[in-house]
Amino acid sequence: DSGVTQTPKHLITATGQRVTLRCSPRSGDLSVYWYQQSLDQGLQFLIQYYNGEERAKGNILERFSAQQFPDLHSELNLSSLELGDSALYFCASSVGVGDYEQYFGPGTRLTVT
Amino acid sequence: GNSVTQMEGPVTLSEEAFLTINCTYTATGYPSLFWYVQYPGEGLQLLLKATKADDKGSNKGFEATYRKETTSFHLEKGSVQVSDSAVYFCALIRQGAQKLVFGQGTRLTINP
To answer: Torsion angle of alpha carbons A88, A94, A99, A100, nearest 10°?
Structure first.
């Protein structure tokens, strides 16, 4: 158990819908990262927040957005969902920014039908 | 750009065999290097890491040495067990950057 929690574990929704994925970092960690794992793209970095502020952006679609709240939990919002958005979405956390060890949550499996 | 290349899987071995999973990287500067493991139905777990040239990371019988001259970070274990069956990911973080860059993963199956 990494100490990073993600909810829900599974999510099934239809095209065009909007969903919210939630992540709580390890106690004491200020950075939260979101990654997408799909069969064709592998593991891709989406976005990072540090202490409530966006720090780095990767291959995140404009239909996707995220935020980190004052209690340091983070939410990833996916809208206008397409079949290709079906993937495992991982949250990770670390103490700070840079090359600190990142600890991953169990992931949310999103299926878009 | 920064990238990680792993040996293609799947890899199938018998219990107690010697394991090597090759990993090479391309990066500017001096990245930190990691191996993560993903067991079936679970998230990624940090297996080991190395932050500078010639560092050796080790954990649970697994080892990897940061070789700057060959830009490699090969994962090795002397005697694998059935419980080591998983997908293994090599990854790097470029110096000063925030994101992990992953290889494509190598699926390992150990038969009893």
So the answer is: -130
